[in-house]
Design the sequence.
């Protein structure tokens, strides 16, 4: 009998309390892209009735983490993925559920090659946050690194 490994979403929900707090839904996670949804939850609304900026930041950062785990999960024995810096721009009023789509900004093979060469590689992940009607409500960039294990 074979055991099915946990999904990226299940792993993040088990290890990152904010994922559970926000009830994030992991729609897709591959080595190139991850899609994560924040359901509309009145307890997370801001003063204009949309998701709070902090909830949107966490949604986008979680999507970036999902694509990083999908791309570099096979490197976890020798390196720890860490967010180095992040920046977000809020573009339009978000109302209702919002979705973050994260894309790896550097080929995974190039990052692993740098790790193999003894470097601590950095790489960008770009995230777009959209409403259900497709309007872009925010854009975020997170720079990640793979810190070699001691």
Sequence:
């Amino acid at each position: 009998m074979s055991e099915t490994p946990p999904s990226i979403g299940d792993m993040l929900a088990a290890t990152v309390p904010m994922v559970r707090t926000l009830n994030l839904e992991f729609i897709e996670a591959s080595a190139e892209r991850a899609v994560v949804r924040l359901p509309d939850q009145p307890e997370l609304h801001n003063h204009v009735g949309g998701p709070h900026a902090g909830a949107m930041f966490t949604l986008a950062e979680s999507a970036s983490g999902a694509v990083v785990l999908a791309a570099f999960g096979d490197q976890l024995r020798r390196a720890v993925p860490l967010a180095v810096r992040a920046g977000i721009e809020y573009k339009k009023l978000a109302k209702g559920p919002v979705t973050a789509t994260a894309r790896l900004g550097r080929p995974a093979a190039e990052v692993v090659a740098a790790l193999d060469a003894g470097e601590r590689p950095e790489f960008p992940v770009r995230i777009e946050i959209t409403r259900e009607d497709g309007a872009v409500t925010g854009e975020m960039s997170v720079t990640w690194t793979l810190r070699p294990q001691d």
Q: What stands out?
A: The chain has four helices and six strands. The first strand starts at residue 25 and ends at 29. The mean pLDDT is 94.
